[in-house]
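User: Structure please.
Assistant: Input sequence and predicted structure:
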Amino acid sequence: MVLDFITGLGGYLLPFLVVLTVLVFVHEMGHYLVARWNGVRIEVFSIGFGPEIKGWNDSLGTRWKICWIPFGGYVKFFGDSDGASRPDGEALRELSDDERAVSFHHKRLGQRAAIVAAGPIANFVYAIVVLAAMYMAFGQRVTPAEIGRVIENGAGQLAGFREGDIVLSIDGDDIHRFEQFEQTVFLNAERPLSFQIRRAGRELTLNATPKLVEKADRQGIKHKFGDLGVWPANPAIVGKVFEDSPAALAGFKVGDRILAIDGEVVDNFERLQDTVAASKGRRMAVAVLRDGAEMRLHAAARRDVAADETDNSERWLIGILRAQRAPVRLGPGDAVIQATGTSYDMLVQTLAYVGQM
């Protein structure tokens, strides 16, 4: 049992430490390079803290080392008393003119600011490079900025949003994917926004104010964000059928598009989930589109016992998962633009969360 625990912990801890080490290296390298460009002497470049595992000195006199405590790192400049760049006051007063020329604390304010900012900027640029490479190699799943569902009495419905609306811009800023729409709404609770949309070939302007929503995460930390009560267009296409499930027994196949249940139109996966839940196990007639031909299947949902045991709620399932959108590979230019936007959105959202803590 102990061995299993250690093995399992290693399966998570080792990848975490590898990723952390790379991020620390990139961050500290940002400080290092800009300091070098500004003529600062670097005494130590360390990955980790504590006793040294391995180290070497380069031709410029910098000690490069790896230490036993892997949770961080530092660059020690000439004139620092420690790795946190605290100045050694007495030593600084005794420096010669030549030594002052290579001391971090004797550089101009703009130079010192650039050196300090270089670490976070390096991490931001690194995130863009990694994401851009992933978008070029593996592609990106993009959700079109089309409204697929409007919650009753939500801020979106009150503003006049309808299913099928395509969002073109918000306050004059172009919107190309639902994630952009969602991010803007998220960050603008209780602030009036102007939405340019396309509906049935016509362009319209809707004015809506995202409702302020407060929810607690798993750690109990409460977060506030804006919500319009709208969902993206999400056709009810089967992506997976679980073995021995009601869907499998009824003959569902991957790629089936569910059109209606008991005569009621199902135009997105969320509506499918609601309809199945409302059936309470009743036998349903399901119209599906397969290979261009419409056909009818019959299935009765089963209650999810596991969910009932944990939270005393009822979930009725037929045993399918939604289909994922196929990733689209991007060219270098588009990949960099998309990666920059994604990195910026993540930064803004992270800062918004931190500001609420």
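The first helix runs from residue 2 to 37.
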